[in-house]
Specification:
Layout lengths: L2 H10 L6 H16 L19 H24 L9 H15 L10 E14 L7 E14 L6 E10 L2 E3 L3 E6 L11 H4 L6 H9 L7 E3 L2 E3 L3 H15 L5 H12 L5 E7 L5 E7 L5 E7 L6 E8 L11 E13 L51
Antiparallel strand pairs: 1-2, 1-12, 2-3, 3-4, 3-5, 6-7, 8-9, 9-10, 10-11, 11-12
């Protein structure tokens, strides 16, 4: 965005001076304009004319403007006001991300979409439910999705680590059945069935999706329509790091219409890449962030960040995150050897075999493979 737009947005975020301060400044300007230092002597026969105090007027105006700018600068840079630009800046990022989606390649129906995705998540270990021990888990996930959904694909996790213990492979390649999953969540083919009008898509995202209520600590959180829409966007993007271009455009335009979204100018995704993010929180415990590359505005990842400390986890810790490492179109999927079949979550994005629900919804979900790992809801509350 250009400098004048940024300046206008920062100025719009600053409160105007109080009425009494404005009245005092106005009185000072009027007094300076009305005062006269005396009469200038004219030549013989010439009428005397008032010596307008131009410097006095301009000096008073400059003083008032300087005071306003000083107040603005104090509010913006010393913590007395907003620490991020207003909501319109977040909307502008989402609109640019929507435009960037249209430059994505469109694969053909017989092809496969190959993605590598990095995950970070907190895994509850131990047997105590009241005071679980949390370990940070990381994983690299590989997926071959049939673009049309008509051909079997493959899913695997070549590397994962929890609590410093590395496993390789973490999950051998397992089969993605043809026509697997439900519309809107699980596959590129299903995503092609969703509305590409932003308003129609937003109405779809706002509807209850049949997932269990969110649990934050020991309490249940009820979400409204805007909350459900934002959470559903995070779930779709977390499970499908590459989506159909026209749907991507509609998705980010719909996100721009959701109230309460803020801009975070400097974040790091699960793959360690820096970016900008738009974020929203509904529970007061977790902030859900959509992350974009700072120059191209291409979507790179989604993550949930703790806003409250609890059960040994600090404020600012990443609760769950996924980030795109690599994507390309290929003509075939590899042979699979692992038992079981890939079964994507409908209520959250899953980092491989660890059955943790979307931090956005807080709902526990079944594992992506036949052997489930630990599942838990978000701490705090």
């Amino acid at each position: 965005m250009d400098e004048m737009t940024v300046l206008r947005e920062f100025r719009a975020a600053v409160r105007a001076p109080a009425a009494e301060r404005l009245a005092a400044a106005r009185a000072a300007v009027l007094a300076a304009a009305a005062s006269s230092p005396g009469q200038q002597a004219g030549g013989p026969g010439r009428p005397r004319r008032p010596a307008w105090p131009r410097l006095g007027v301009y000096g008073a105006i400059a003083t008032v403007l300087a005071a306003v700018l000083l107040i603005s600068a104090t509010l913006i840079f010393t913590g007395g006001g907003p620490v991020t630009p207003p909501a319109s800046a977040a909307s502008r990022v989402l609109q640019r991300a929507a435009a960037a989606e249209l430059s994505q390649p469109v694969p053909r129906g017989r092809q496969f979409l190959y993605t590598e995705t990095a995950f970070v998540l907190q895994v509850a270990t131990g047997s105590s439910r009241t005071a679980p021990r949390w370990e940070t888990g990381t994983a690299l996930q590989q997926m071959w999705q049939s673009v049309s959904g008509s051909r079997p694909g493959a899913f695997g996790i070549p590397h994962c680590q929890v609590g410093g213990q590395r496993r390789s492979p973490c999950q051998p390649l397992i089969r993605i059945p043809a026509h697997a999953g439900q519309p809107g969540i699980s596959s590129y083919a299903d995503l092609q069935k969703l509305p590409t009008s932003s308003q129609a898509l937003l109405s779809y995202l706002e509807k209850p999706n049949g997932c269990p209520p969110a649990s934050i600590g020991n309490r249940t959180v009820q979400f409204g329509r805007a909350d459900r829409a934002w959470n559903q966007i995070a779930t779709i993007l977390g499970n499908n790091m590459v989506i159909p271009p026209r749907l991507g455009q509609a998705l980010f335009r719909a996100a721009a219409q959701i109230p309460g979204v803020i801009l975070l100018p400097n974040v790091v995704d699960a793959a360690g890449h820096r970016g900008i993010a738009v974020a929203r929180t509904a529970s007061g415990v977790l902030r859900t962030e959509l992350i974009f590359a700072p120059r191209s505005y291409r979507f790179t990842g989604v993550q949930d960040v703790l806003l409250k400390a609890g059960q040994g986890l600090r404020v600012g810790a990443v609760w769950a995150a996924s980030a795109l490492v690599r994507a390309k179109v290929v003509t075939r999927a590899p042979a699979t050897s692992g038992r079981g079949q890939y079964a994507p979550s409908q209520c959250g994005y899953l980092p491989g075999v660890y059955g943790v629900g979307s931090a956005s919804t807080g709902a526990a979900a079944s594992s992506s493979s036949s052997s489930s790992g630990p599942a838990s809801s978000a701490p705090g509350g």
